[in-house]
Amino acid sequence: MKKEQSRGRVSLVALSEKYSNVAEQYRAIRSNIRFSSVDRPLKSMVVTSAGPGEGKSTTAANLAIIFANSGKRVLLVDADLRKPSVADSFQILNAKGLSNLLIDSDVTHENLVYQMSVDNLWIMPSGPKPPNPSELLGSQRMIEVIEKLTNCFDLVIFDMPPVVTVTDAQIVAAKVDGTLFVVRERKTNKQMAQKAKKLLMMANANVLGVVYNATSAKDQKDYYYGN
């Protein structure tokens, strides 16, 4: 496994400001996710949103750190094969990653993941942008990849594109144990959020709950809503 080459950006508050109120809110989200999946083991999870700029990648990255802090072996996978961001956030190379794993059945994940300085945390970048992301994510190979990764890690978090924009998140949400939906105050359109919910329901996704992002300090007690 590759070693981390540099530190994460300051936007990763669970890493740079781990005693802050925002980091505590991520720990509260972690607890609520555990409560929501008490009767069903959670080994794989999609994090998505209705549209762009709503904080789903920030949420996925910080939750990966928070779950790793609790002792779980966590793999954060950048499954946004169109506009990846995880490699930039953690300042690692994106020359190879998930797309290589999906395209070539002879490739194994061991050479595609970066072990981070955070204990129990690994990152898999998206890799080169393919011409057919939806087809790759909907393939039998993707099912095999999810099964293999969940056998090697305690929790695999997939950072996905917005669910309304493209079908990628809907496709993968149907294959994993749970889906976390991120909305942003004064950003998420109500109709778009309703459409996203409908699309996830059509995919029979197990929606764990909603992260209410960018709320004001006085409302932070409502940062997370269960399903």
List keywords for this structure.
alpha/beta; Rossmann fold; nine-stranded mixed beta sheet; 9 helices; 18% strand
Helices and strands, with pairings:
Layout: E1 2-3, H1 13-16, H2 21-36, E2 44-49, H3 56-69, E3 74-78, H4 86-90, H5 98-103, E4 114-115, E5 121-124, H6 133-137, H7 140-152, E6 155-159, H8 168-173, E7 178-184, H9 190-202, E8 207-213, E9 224-226
Parallel strand pairs: 1-4, 2-6, 2-7, 3-5, 3-6, 7-8
Antiparallel strand pairs: 4-5, 8-9
Task: Give a brief rundown of this model.
Helix content is 36%, strand content 18%. By secondary structure, the protein is of the alpha/beta class. It has one domain: 3-Layer(aba) Sandwich (Rossmann fold).
Please characterize this protein's 3D structure.
With 227 residues, this protein is of the alpha/beta class. It has a single domain (2-226), classed as 3-Layer(aba) Sandwich (Rossmann fold). It has helices at 13-16, 21-36, 56-69, 86-90, 98-103, 133-137, 140-152, 168-173, 190-202; strands at 2-3, 44-49, 74-78, 114-115, 121-124, 155-159, 178-184, 207-213, 224-226. It has a nine-stranded mixed β-sheet with strand order 1-4-5-3-6-2-7-8-9, sandwiched between helices. The chain is globular, with a radius of gyration of 16 Å.
Strand content: 15-25%
Return the CATH class: Alpha Beta
| Count of helix runs | 9
The shape, in one word, is globular
Please state the oligomeric state of the protein chains shown: single chain
CATH superfamily membership: P-loop containing nucleotide triphosphate hydrolases
CATH T-level topology: Rossmann fold
